[in-house]
Design brief:
The complex is a heterodimer.
Chain A lengths: L59 H13 L21 H7 L2 H4 L11 H18 L3 E3 L5 H18 L8 E5 L5 H9 L2 E5 L9 H5 L6 E7 L11 H10 L3 E6 L11 H4 L3 E4 L1 H4 L14 E3 L11 E5 L2 E5 L16 H14 L3 H19 L15 E4 L1 H7 L3 H10 L6 E2 L8 E4 L7 H20 L1 H5 L12 H6 L10
Parallel strand pairs in A: 2-3, 2-4, 4-5, 5-6
Antiparallel strand pairs in A: 1-7, 6-7, 8-9, 10-12, 11-12
Helix pairs in contact in A: 2-11, 4-11, 5-6, 12-15
Chain B lengths: L11 E2 L4 E6 L2 E6 L1 H7 L2 E5 L6 E2 L4 E7 L3 E5 L4 E6 L1 H5 L3 H4 L8 E5 L11 H9 L2
Antiparallel strand pairs in B: 1-2, 2-3, 3-9, 4-6, 5-8, 6-7, 8-9
Amino acid sequence: MSGAADRPLTTDESDAMPLIFEKSRAGRRGLAIPNPGLPVPAVPAHLARKSAPRLPELAEPEVVRHFTKLSTRNFGIDSGFYPLGSCTMKYNPRVNERLVGLPGFRDIHPLAEDESVQGALELEWNLQEILRAVTGLDAVSLQPAAGSQGELTGLLVMKAYFESKGEGAQRRKIVIPDTAHGTNPASVAMTGFELTPVKTDARGNIDIEDLRGKVDENTAGLMLTNPSTLGLFDENISEIREIFRAVGALMYYDGANLNAVVGISRPGDMGFDVVHINLHKTFSQPHGGGGPGGGPIAVRDILEPFLPAPTVVRDGEAFRLEHDRPQSIGRVRGYSGPFGVFVRSYAFMRAWGPALREMSEVAVLNANYMRVRLQGAYDLPYDRLCMHEFVLSARNLKKEYGITATDVAKRLMDFGYHPPTVYFPLVVPEALMIEPTESEAKETLDAFCDVMLEIAREAADDPEVLKTAPHFRPVTRLDEVRAAKEPIVRFGFGS
Amino acid sequence: MAAAESYPDDLLYNEEHDWARIEGDEALLGITWHAADALGELVHYEPPAVGATISKDESYGEIESVKAVSDLISPLSGEVLEVNDIVVGTPETVNLDPYGNGWLVRIRLSDPSEKDVLLDLADYRKVLDEQ
């Protein structure tokens, strides 16, 4: 869409949707089932409800129309460009859904005997092998169901490793740069390690001098996203590896940004000992609604004994789940992990085949193309070749016209785009973090850039249009502060 | 309404945009207008416990806006004597009055000489110019 500024600046009030509870009329029913005449089972008095549940009462077509209309309010990668930095919102090929729906995958039970599900186990084994090749490491656990769970699992494995060496009490500290995803410090705290923050230097790398003063024999390891959340590959990764190797500490690779380097460089070669892979980001999987995800970890051989059980092993031509791992940290999820995610990601990998490297190359090319088109109109705090994403700052617009990253993001919605990630990473004021992925055509990138440039012009010519945006969405600017302070998370029934 | 931009010249600052107002062997700590403005309206203040020991350059609590949760980095070391309950109840007080009613903790200094390495207004303005 374009030319949004030519349209009237009011929201059509008829667009506001009542809640399904507000549509409820007492006594209305969607379905009337004939009384079967069966005896009513006796419910113990202490278990019986005192009053009927307060459910909405509507006819079936009203319910269908309500949810159908709601579904048209959804925005996903299937409806438009979704450059949400750090989230890798790539297109999810439809063929993946056909394959995961095959009866041999769909209709099997996780407790089935290994002999009866050889195809499913072979797929898991093949997936493990591809992840070993991509990461350059030795062993894989498919169990973790999200990047954050991969982090926790990886840190627990590192802890178990040091405990097995009698260094559990000594190795207390995990080093994390100030650009990290918030899940990193959270995982450190949950595992019982202590957090050692390290600064970012003027080029967007880890500040090596700051790092040197913070790594010693009490350090258990580093957690690093590389490329970082600034979309920059750390130029000193070899030096960083030597610093940690010298004190016997381990290195954890947050695979959130793996989409930049698949087939080009391997975390194992960079010196990392544990990697989590966000299958749902790098290897496609619908994940805009919070799941399901897949966060397998790959580890160096010294850590393999501590991986969660079971893992899939191959005996000649047969595959089986291996449960016998006496030093394992235990299960982190039921069965062998989120199987539907495995099928989709495996299908995605096989569709690329040996050309998988092109996926990352195009993702990096797309990001750099957009960076160059936009860097005049918006500040670019770290002016370097970027990887699969880049971080702009609206601080120039804020300083000159009072326009914030929020205003830019809200205005983008008027043009039919999902906004980029804003106000992250925290080291960049008024951050706008843009990740196009490899899925998008040049025309899409250009159309989005045109709108971003138009918004920058609007900031100078008509800042009020930005401050009150969005104008053409079902709701306008929401009171985010009040929503955070006084959240209403259930219907009040008129109270 | 948020306060207008200002930085009093009787305060000491650190690079993390925290300020200290030293009164004898005690000090009030808070965050600067710049920090409050960058975060936007605060929605939560997680204070330290009264009696807790806090250390220079380490986190002594958290503040939260709809954009981010931020650590409060103490410019000085000492024992927490008092927490500002006004900010606990209405965190936006910091946006309205960052150097007055928006103070965060009062501490008894354990090493008053630490103030010598803090920034005066002129030095803090240099930090702001680099932002």
